[in-house]
Specification:
Helices cover about 45% and strands about 10% of the residues. The chain is built from seven helices and 14 strands. The chain starts with a helix and ends in a 15-residue tail after the last strand.
């Protein structure tokens, strides 16, 4: 490296260091990191669906060894990232850092949750298969459908969210968002048998509650309705205490491009919301909500 190039690079480095003085600064191994969270998501999917997300053989006598090895790796990644998130929270709030034994106990609870999460995601696979004639078999749902990736990761992230772990749940679901185009906040409570067909552009907010056997299509939004609540200081009221996203009761179907808004909005059981509907108020069970037929103008470009 020439002296001139070294001096040029040193000057850029100096200016970057000065820029890091503004928030957010350097993550000095004190926050979760994106690379490890991406690894955590891959490890999770591998445990929920052995053999579907990695090429390693897992059948027959290999399965026990595979599970033990993968669980150990998952535990290590999860423990490190949970510890970073909890230490960050303690420093931010001025409290004492969590004891290692407490962190290990928390991670043990999350590992035990894998069984319940697996049972839930199997209902998601079954509901996808039951509602999509393009699904030739259940295996293709796991191998090819973005909904399974996004919802599986969200279901586990929701367990972290409920335990008050900061940062990490949202990082997991945003990793899934980047992979699938499906944006589900980890705070959203989703019951069994949930399917998002196609998926791209779906947004589900933090305080939404979704019942059993619900079906969404691409471009659906379960979102907040302005004006958003603000405190006396003018800042947004954040978190789950501010109910700002709608709820779906059991057996609700929402077609492509529909937007449901507001924390007081409830879509009653067995209702169908048509495509491109903009809904800001509750509807009772067994409702059908659709737009009036648009006035179409059709002309021929040339004589046939």
């Amino acid at each position: 490296m020439s002296d001139a190039l070294f001096a040029s690079l040193a000057e850029v480095a100096r200016r970057l260091r000065a820029a890091y003085q503004r928030q957010p600064g350097v993550n000095e191994a004190s926050l979760p990191d994106r690379e490890s969270v991406a690894l955590l998501a891959r490890q999770l999917l591998t445990l929920l669906f052995p053999g579907y997300f990695v090429a390693e053989p897992v059948g027959g006598a290999r399965l026990d060894d595979f599970l033990c090895a993968r669980l150990a790796a998952f535990e290590g990644t999860l423990l490190e990232q949970v510890a970073r998130a909890c230490r960050y929270q303690a420093r931010r709030e001025g409290g004492s850092e969590p004891e290692p034994a407490a962190l290990r106990g928390l991670v043990a609870e999350l590992l035990a949750d894998l069984v319940a999460v697996r049972e839930l995601v199997i209902t998601d696979v079954e509901w996808a298969y039951a509602n999509d004639p393009a699904a030739s078999e259940r295996e293709v749902v796991v191998l090819a459908y973005p909904s399974i990736v996004a919802v599986s990761i969200q279901r586990f992230a929701h367990r972290l969210y409920r335990r008050g772990i900061p940062l990490l749940p949202r990082m997991l679901t945003e990793h899934a968002h980047g992979r699938t185009g499906i944006d589900i906040h980890p705070g959203a409570a989703i019951d069994e048998s949930f399917f998002i067909d196609h998926g791209t552009g779906v947004v589900i907010g933090e305080t939404s509650r979704i019942g059993k056997r619900c079906l969404l299509y691409q471009g659906v939004g379960l979102v907040a309705w302005n004006p958003l609540a603000r405190g006396a200081d003018g800042e947004l009221v954040r978190g789950a205490a501010n109910k700002r996203h709608p709820d779906l009761e059991d057996h609700v179907t929402i077609y492509a491009g529909a937007t449901i808004l507001g924390g007081d909005t409830v879509v009653g059981a067995h209702s169908v919301i048509g495509g491109n509907v903009w809904l800001t108020r509750s509807v009772p069970p067994w409702s059908v909500v659709r737009l009036a037929d648009p006035e179409l103008v059709i002309r021929q470009r040339r004589s046939v």
